[in-house]
Design goal:
436 residues; alpha+beta; Outer membrane efflux proteins (OEP)
């Protein structure tokens, strides 16, 4: 009896080892690195940042001159009749005339009330906003990767628990069959053991399905081929030394959402500065070199040409625009005020989220310790129950109860670790210190 049971246990063990060796072991560090390289949302955010970096240019702020080259040609075909002052008349059918003008010109705004400098600073702030948005995207995606990864760790541990209960159920069936053979048990005991094995196998199949689907989800986040198979670590790495005061300080300095709102307020302030620039005069200089050629079949001048340099300047000052300037400044001021309100609102929300997440974190750490003790007790109880069942001093119902208690204790312990890890990830995400 013991030899048969040992053989089945070893067979299952080596089968699991063979399956493990055939699959890639994906670490959490590898998963995060793959996400940084492949994730589509991170790639899009990086491209948006490239756009903002490209926009930071003196020409985009209006600081550089504009040079243009122009060519204009006109051709006419007309029936003309002219009467001169001396009374003579001249006429010509299909008279041709044409003109050709070409040249280069340069326009340069040399003063616009410092608007161009405010625009350049605003472009730099928008680049910083792009960097912050990229960091927010990366933190969010890395958080998703970690949650999906440790969900797989949990699913893997639960698969192990169900594998264990099937081994135990097989031992129970073997014992029941042996007892029935020697006349110490009824056929009903054998049937009950077989039913329980079938129930355990159904639970195992469901868990395998959930595990496989969780792999597909992680592969999707990593932007890999979804059928790619792999295994994850068998353990949770949980930090138990997070301190609320440190997390709060880091959140105030590094939380991407707060940083984005601070930058947005600075952008609004620079927008107001650009609007106020309209109160100052605008001074432009211009110069150019032009060529002109004209031909006519009829007239006092049948051909002319000219070339030369032109230069000058222009100045303008808004004297009255229907109070539009005052209205625009007032609206820009309100937008700055709203940006400040949004910062205060986000700070309050962040502090609330941090406080609640930290309390959940502490509770989950305590639950880990409790569930670990429960698992140890359930394991001891199962070992004692199994010995008693072998000698026939307890019923099959009592044995099944001890078996299920042990499996449920392992599942609850795994879930407690997973929930604690989720709490840790959430806290680090809020504080902007999540590792990647």
């Amino acid at each position: 009896m013991k030899t048969t049971t040992l053989f089945k246990t070893l067979l299952l063990f080596f089968s699991c080892v063979s399956m493990t060796n055939a699959q890639e072991i994906l670490t959490i560090e590898q998963a995060m690195q793959i996400a940084l390289e492949n994730n589509y949302e991170i790639k899009i955010a990086k491209n948006y940042l490239k756009i903002e970096e490209t926009n930071v240019a003196a020409g985009n702020a209006g600081m550089l001159p504009k040079a243009t080259a122009t060519v204009v040609q006109n051709n006419n075909l007309q029936n003309l009749s002219q009467t001169r002052t001396d009374g003579t008349t001249t006429s010509l059918d299909n008279a041709k005339s044409n003109s050709l003008n070409y040249g280069v010109g340069l326009d340069w705004t040399i003063f616009d009330g410092f608007k161009m400098f405010a625009k350049k600073d605003q472009l730099k702030e928008l680049q910083k906003l792009g960097e912050t948005q990229l960091r927010l995207t990366i933190i969010t995606k890395i958080s998703d990767v970690q949650e999906a990864y440790y969900n797989l760790v949990q699913q893997q541990q639960q698969l192990s628990a169900l594998d264990t209960t099937i081994v135990i159920s097989n031992q129970r069936l073997t014992l029941a069959q042996n007892r029935f053979t020697i006349g110490k048990a009824s056929k009903l005991e054998v049937l009950n053991a077989q039913v329980d094995i079938n129930t355990d196998q159904v639970a195992l199949l469901r868990q395998q399905e959930l595990y496989a689907n969780s792999k597909l989800i992680l592969n999707q986040i990593l932007a890999r081929d979804t059928p790619m198979d792999f295994r994850v670590s068998d353990e949770f790495l949980i930090s138990e030394k997070l301190e609320f005061a440190i997390l709060k300080t880091e959140a105030e300095k590094q939380n991407p959402q707060i940083q984005a709102l601070l930058i947005s307020k600075r952008v609004a302030e620079l927008a107001l500065k650009q609007i106020k620039a309209a109160r100052y005069p605008t001074l432009k200089v211009n110069t150019g070199y032009n060529f002109a050629e004209n031909e006519s079949s009829l007239g006092f001048t049948t051909q002319s040409s000219a070339r030369g340099l032109n230069y000058g300047f222009s100045a303008s000052l808004n004297l009255f625009d229907g109070f539009a300037q005052k209205r625009n400044e007032k609206i820009a001021g309100i937008q700055i005020e709203n940006a400040g309100i949004q910062i205060a609102q986000q700070n309050q929300a962040l502090n609330t989220q941090l406080a609640t997440a930290y309390q959940t974190y502490l509770t989950n750490l305590e639950l880990i310790r409790l569930e670990e003790k429960n698992q140890e007790i359930a394991q001891q109880n199962l070992a004692i129950t199994l010995d008693k069942f072998r000698i026939g001093t307890i019923t099959t119902i009592e044995f099944r109860t001890a078996q299920l208690n042990y499996v449920n204790a392992k599942v609850r312990y795994s879930d407690a670790q997973f929930q604690a890890k989720l709490s840790e990830i959430a806290l680090k995400e809020l504080a902007g210190i999540i590792n990647f």
